[in-house]
Amino acid sequence: MGTSFVINVPATSANIGPGFDVMGLSLSLYLTVSADVETEQGSDMAAVTTILPNRNITLMYEGENSGGLSLDPQANLITRTALYVLDCSGIKQFPHPTTVRVKNSIPLGRGLGSSGAAVVAGVLLANAVGSLRLTQQRMLDYCLMIEHHPDNVAAALVGGFVASYLIDVDRSGNIPASEADEAEVLQREREQKAAAADGSIKLPPDNIGHFLQLECSPKIKAIAIIPQFELATSKARAALPGSYTTRDVVFNLQRLAVLTTALGRETPDPWLIYRAMEDKVHQPYRMHLVPGLPEILATFNPDNTPGLLGICLSGAGPTILALAVSNFDEIASKIRAVFDRQPNGGIATEYKVLDIVGEGASCIESLR
Ligand SMILES: Nc1ncnc2c1ncn2[C@@H]1O[C@H](COP(=O)(O)OP(=O)(O)O)[C@@H](O)[C@H]1O
Ligand SMILES: N[C@@H](CCOP(=O)(O)O)C(=O)O
Q1: Which of 14, 64, 170, 268 has the most CB atoms in a 10 Å sphere around its CB?
Q2: What pTM did the predictor assign?
Q3: Where is the GHMP kinase N-terminal domain positioned along the sequence (predicted)?
């Protein structure tokens, strides 16, 4: 006898051109985390005195990069996030023996929000197994404590076409202004906790991320052209400059303001969207990390590629995101051909035609 939870979290495409660290789209490609909790056999949460080495978790994984991820619950991003959230509520391990099965269809390190989805899944997992009753807003706080840019996690948590910002918490207020990746952030939390005189962990400040779900025409699909190489988000962030010209910032602000409503029009205007998806803040500095990207951005447009609305780097890359209303396979073929033509035998790609899904992360509970 026990309880089962099935958590589904969508992939996301962040930035959508000019909305660096602001915009995200949730996509019909999922990370699924199933947790079977043995409530009958396990000891009562209050009675747990010994911290088990595996924190009461058996972890299994299948799907993308199945050989490459740690199954150590204290190293794996999903369970490590869950343990951090439980710890913030004074719970040192999973309250009951729990088998966690991960099925992941989101390619890792490709700019489709795999790490954001893992963080969101970890927060939902802790909420479920620890009966924490966290609100969606509080879950977002936890996600942002670990992934410092809100675009992926907000879209993965709430679904749809999402704009978000992070409150500028002061330096003593827990959200460090750093480019550390999720694993480094969790490690730092662990070290700060170990160093704290009372062994306490810092809680995320309240209400640190705000979001708005925007209209997106149901006619629009997302074509993801996914190169077969990984690009760590931290590496792609390290390529960005520390400051920008006023001209480039204004260029992006103008486009971003138009993009927020252009995608919601019932009949999307291809050239309006195409121009509104141009960017001068992150893509120009990431060109060298994605061979083929300069040609792809310079070549395809709504006139020479019917059905295309706009094209950009998905998240930090290397995936290319093309928004379109028709001719999805043809558009994908043209973009893939650019990767095929790259020096030294080309770059292998796969592609997926995805829906923009209105529903974000979910957790379904059942009794066994
Ligand atoms: N399902 C998962 N389970 C555990 N760790 C994951 C999972 N998905 C992603 N990660 C972690 O996140 C890293 C990729 O993050 P990142 O470089 O930000 O790329 P992405 O653009 O896919 O989010 C992986 O190398 C892995 O450490
Ligand atoms: N705004 C971030 C988005 C990273 O997305 P990911 O899917 O590549 O993790 C950035 O551009 O760095």
Answers
A1: 14
A2: 0.94
A3: 76-160
Write the pLDDT tens digit of every residue in 38-77: 987 644 544 445 666 789 999 999 999 877 899 999 999 9
Nearest Cα to Cα of residue 37 among 66, 64, 7, 9: 7
Rounded Cα distance between 15 and 219, Å, is 20
Where does the pLDDT of residue 327 fall: very low under 50, low under 70, confident under 90, or very high at 90 and above?
very high
Domain formed by 217-355, architecture? 2-Layer Sandwich (3.30)
Please tell me if the CB atom of residue 233 comes closer than 6 angstroms to any atom of ligand 1: yes
Q: Which of 143, 233, 314 to mutate to test the pocket of ligand 2 (most atoms within 8 A of CB)?
A: 233
Smallest Cα–Cα separation from 106: which of 138, 78, 140, 80? 78
Would you kindly state where each structural domain of the chain is located, as residue ranges? 3-210, 217-355
DSSP 346: -
Gyration radius of the chain over CA positions: 21
The predicted pLDDT at position 335 comes to: 98
CATH topology of domain 3-210: Ribosomal Protein S5; domain 2 (3.30.230)
Cross-strand bridge partners of residue 119: none
- Two tokens, residue 165: 């910002």
Q: Is there a contact between 77 and 38 (Cβ–Cβ < 8 Å)?
A: no
